[in-house]
Design goal:
By secondary structure, this protein is an alpha/beta fold. It is built from 4 helices and 6 strands; from the N terminus they run βαββαβαβαβ. The chain has helices at 31-43, 114-120, 133-146, 167-177; strands at 5-10, 47-53, 93-97, 125-131, 150-159, 181-183. It has one domain: Rossmann fold (3-Layer(aba) Sandwich), CATH 3.40.50. The longest helix has 14 residues, at 133-146. A 6-stranded parallel beta sheet has the order 3-2-1-4-5-6, with helices on both faces.
Length: 189
């Protein structure tokens, strides 16, 4: 790892954890693993980025607006906050996504300045962690690959929803088929 690498922590927010509005089963279990990655990346002078859903109250993705999801991660609410167990260092680049009422965005690149920020920081390789593998992680990874970044999925620091059985496996296969690599904690000295 070096200054051309970044750890992207995807959507470790209260509403996506057990007890939240749209929980990923055992999503809280990856937070300590992500914290270990944060320590390793910080020690290597690599960059830390955290994405978050940051919905307006009447977001198009909500069931009462015809979308598939219950209201979740409504900006400036407790559900939109990062998990209190997540140890984000200072500085951490925060990327807010799905901020427009009439537009869904699963990727941390969609409708955000993430690509510009990565280019300004001269990031070449993105290590992706977080929730959920079959939605925001896969879409973020695919967009990063399309933009020319090398992508490594931290398999011990991601979890999916699996709305339809096999969604997570299909998402992982899709990322790999498009050039993403994988790593786990034991791959880092």
């Amino acid at each position: 790892m070096n200054k051309h690498d970044a750890l992207l922590i995807t959507d470790i927010q209260v509403d996506f954890l057990p007890g939240g509005a749209l929980p990923v089963t055992e999503g809280d279990k990856i937070v300590p693993v992500i914290n270990k990655y944060v320590s390793k990346f910080k020690a290597a002078d690599a960059h830390i980025i955290a994405s978050r859903d940051w919905h307006p109250p009447n977001h198009i993705s909500f069931k009462d607006k015809g979308g598939p999801w219950p209201p979740h991660c409504i900006r400036d609410t407790q559900g939109s906050e990062f998990s209190s167990a997540l140890k984000l260092p200072n500085p951490t680049l925060i990327i807010s996504k799905a901020t427009e009422q009439n537009r869904e965005a699963y990727s941390a690149f969609d409708g955000t300045n993430l690509a510009n920020e990565l280019n300004k920081l001269d990031i070449k390789r993105l290590f992706v962690s977080g929730l959920a593998t079959d939605y925001c992680v896969v879409n973020t990874a695919l967009d990063a690959l399309k933009l020319g970044f090398k992508v490594v999925i931290l398999m011990d620091a991601t979890l999916g929803i699996d709305v339809q059985q096999g969604d997570v496996d299909r998402a992982v296969k899709t990322m790999f088929d498009h050039g993403a690599l994988t790593a786990k904690m034991e791959d880092f000295p």
